[in-house]
Design goal:
alpha+beta; 2 domains; Alpha-Beta Plaits; homotetramer; about 140 residues; 4-stranded antiparallel beta sheet; 4 helices
Chain lengths: ~140, ~140, ~140, ~140
């Protein structure tokens, strides 16, 4: 079982006032949750930089499905990495353009490699990798 | 109908050599596709900074679904913005942790606001907004 | 006079353990200073996004000073914006390459404009804008 | 001697139109220079990620020099790394706040370590590392 620890933070009143405005603007319930989010965000970044843990990511792709063989190529690449690509969601943006989001899980370098090779496919207009974590230890 | 234009680029041979290595490493079919990707990436960034177009995004959330009322809260927030949130994909990471990815479409500031308010919910351990585009004009 | 306020943060023990490791690795004196840094970093980002305050920045440029008229062009552009460009530091990297860093102060959009127009000059090989703040209210 | 190579790029007319608008807005002399900048920016990023080359960086710090022993501490840390820290520029922002920019050169991981340990010092309100390159091969 995980347990909660409580500790004190001292902060200049003016800085705290600005932080409280940020907290309200973003809809945080309290300062603890806002601080935890900043801490987790930083730790997730560090984990990706180090590449020493199993990570989770999402790969967002925008492409024109009329591009010859594109859908086939993307599907085939995803199957080549079926142990890493967990699932996919497809959204029809208009008559031509599609949004596809893949959920991936694996070593940081493997995920980066798969994202690079999907984004580079002709007909993929824009692609982005989001690096997040499995949630363990966060 | 869109038409293709061809234009020339001059580049120092050493720089071109390094660019060609990058192209090979990422699996690009040719220099044109790699240059187009760099251009599109920069234009998408600029569009988001300006906030003057209809944009598309994905919001990635990692959370512990055992957190009381969390699933309900996230679902309810998504429905409050049903005109912006297009669809959602859910992945079970382990007994506790979930990955949820939302596809969103709307004004940059609205998308940012929705992302901020989902990420700030207690129990959401990590969240990230990817800003991409509708694909029109890219 | 500014005053210090103290408030409590609750955090899962496992998350706190990872945060403490981060704190040690970065040489922070204590948790308060590490949390304040995360808060200030986020607030500075937000201020730049909003563009509603007087900001401070540094513009880093790497260029080949043998490029014809380059030094003259960069100096002249800096003087055109003498009310924004506060000072400059020049480092000789090798026989050809120079590093120049400018300290700038002004509206976010003005600083961005100046940075864009310096980075785009032929012979400037790489340029980056760092967005920081005047330090007031941080 | 370095030599110039010329190669052709094909681009959808609508995309090229948007790119040309970007080129004009940023003050680029021509498309070649704009493309070269995008290529160099990407290659510099990759070099930093790989950490396999000698890199150049700038570390921007905003701090309150009234903080006890701060100036001394920062100076001493810089001297501990005198082989990496090339030079420093100091700007007086107001009665309390200072901007200091350091030019650094060395292995990516060493530069990152020095930046982390300067930014973590109490009294340093904000700090940022810019990663650039020596200019060779760009």
């Amino acid at each position: 079982m995980s347990t909660l620890t409580r500790f004190g933070i001292s902060m200049d009143s003016k800085l705290l006032q600005r932080f409280d405005a940020y907290i309200t603007e973003h809809g945080y319930a309290n300062r603890s949750e806002a601080v935890r989010d900043l801490v987790r965000e930083r730790l997730v970044q560090k984990s990706w930089d180090k590449g020493d843990e199993e990570m989770v990511g999402t790969i967002t792709l925008v492409f024109d499905h009329h591009q010859r063989d594109l859908t086939e190529k993307l599907t085939s690449q995803q199957h080549d990495h079926h142990e890493t690509v967990l699932s996919a969601m497809h959204v029809h943006l208009d008559h031509y353009n599609c949004l596809e989001v893949l959920a991936v899980r694996g070593k940081a370098s493997d995920i980066q490699h798969i994202a690079d090779h999907l984004i580079s496919v002709k007909g993929v207009k824009h692609g982005k990798l989001v690096m997040t974590a499995t949630g363990k230890g966060l």
